[in-house]
Specification:
Shape: globular
Distance between the termini: 50 Å
Mean pLDDT: 96
Strand content: 15-25%
Bound molecules: guanosine-5'-monophosphate, manganese (II) ion
Oligomer: single chain
Helix content: 25-40%
Number of helices: 12
Length: 350
């Protein structure tokens, strides 16, 4: 039995909103990942089968590595189709905000959404959602936004519209946001939901391999280089740091998504329980953090890197040079683990 996690009053308000409209826009955070794309596209499929004019608008392009998610070619991408994206947002009678907690996370789309009087529905599992939604379904304890979309559809009585295509989208999000059913999935109900999704009989192995085990040769070589030449370990603080600058990325013909799971790798080392990856983008350093246990990287990202996320998976950005970003990381180490006077080398990497 799957319990009704979302309170019935919220579900009733959401049902009334959906019943009262025809045109629905659905959006997710920038640099969409498997959960952002899976949840928006699944919800879009279901709403279309319900007879609604539903469109997914993303702040920027999906990475090539997620090309296989059904429906990805129909996305209206703000950075590519700005006029159309503006039009869809302005004409929408209802806007779903999936897999993000603050308008800043949808970049310039946020400036379009903010002044609109259109009702907004949040479905998300990040900590600390902004208080700007007409209906807010925020459950940081959930594995993924895809799990929450399943629960919302179940409680709305709409599961009969969840077809094979939408089910495969939800599977991709639940799979990738839990690192292949590894973390954030201790609730037995999670597997009941996976089981119900799998009853739609999509090609599970195909989707597993595409989502979890498909990398270009360049990407594998880049990851190998990063681990052999660029991984710094700080065993006294349980930390690891990997940095990749523009020149290094270019050397391996970097495409977005190529370093997606790299930050997790150092956590395989028993004494390492938090890991930071810094990647030089066009105009900033992108920060990714992962941790194990009750060490919160979301706090670190919000305090030092203008970001946030979950306790064990968070991100942010740094405006400045890689050297300065690394210096700030050393400052974090120093703040969290003040060096022992007797052992000045404590903060030195190995
Ligand atoms: P990733 O490291 O895969 O980019 O992101 C890990 C988690 O941190 C995701 O849940 C993502 O939403 C969140 N996150 C990543 N970058 C940012 C950011 O710049 N700001 C905030 N608030 N969250 C982020
Ligand atoms: Mn997510």
């Amino acid at each position: 039995m799957i319990s009704p996690l979302i309170d019935e009053n919220t579900i009733d308000r959401l049902r009334a909103l959906i019943n009262g409209v025809q045109r629905i826009a659905i959006t997710c955070h920038k640099s969409p990942d498997g959960d952002a794309l899976g949840s928006t596209l699944a919800l879009c499929h279901v709403l279309r089968r319900l007879g609604k004019d539903a469109v997914v608008v993303t702040p920027d392009m999906a990475p090539k590595s997620l090309d296989f998610v059904p429906g990805v070619r129909d996305l209206v991408v703000f950075t590519k189709h700005e006029l159309r994206a503006r039009h869809v947002m302005k004409e929408a009678q209802l806007i779903f905000c999936l897999d993000f907690n603050a308008l800043q996370r949808i970049d310039r789309l946020g400036e379009i959404v903010e002044p609109l009087n259109t009702p907004r529905v949040l479905i998300d599992h990040h900590l600390h959602p902004e208080d700007i939604f007409t209906v807010s379904i925020s459950h940081p304890e959930a594995s993924s936004t895809c799990e929450l979309v399943f629960r919302v559809l179940m409680q709305l009585g709409l599961l009969r519209f969840l077809d094979r295509q939408a089910a495969s989208c939800l599977y991709v999000g639940m799979l990738t946001d839990t690192g292949g059913f590894a973390y954030s999935c201790d609730d037995p109900e999670f597997y009941e939901i996976v089981s119900l999704v799998m009853r739609r009989r999509f090609d599970r192995i195909k989707f597993y391999n595409l989502a979890m085990n498909t990398f270009s040769a360049d990407s594998l070589r880049l990851q190998g280089y990063a681990m052999s030449d660029k991984m710094q370990l700080y065993p006294a603080q349980g930390a690891a740091l990997i940095t990749l600058d523009k020149a290094e990325l270019e050397r391996f013909n970097y495409n977005r998504g190529d370093t997606e799971t790299l930050v997790n790798k150092p956590l395989a080392i028993p004494e390492i329980y938090w890991s930071v990856f810094m990647r030089e983008d066009a105009d900033r350093i992108k920060i990714s953090c992962r941790s194990q246990g009750d060490f919160s990287v979301s706090d670190i990202c919000s305090r030092y890197f203008n970001g946030g996320g979950h306790e064990n998976a968070a991100g942010g950005e740094f405006m400045g040079s890689m050297d300065d970003a690394v210096a700030l990381f050393h400052q974090v180490l120093h703040d969290l683990f003040p060096p022992d006077n007797n052992n000045e080398q404590n903060n030195q990497p190995t």
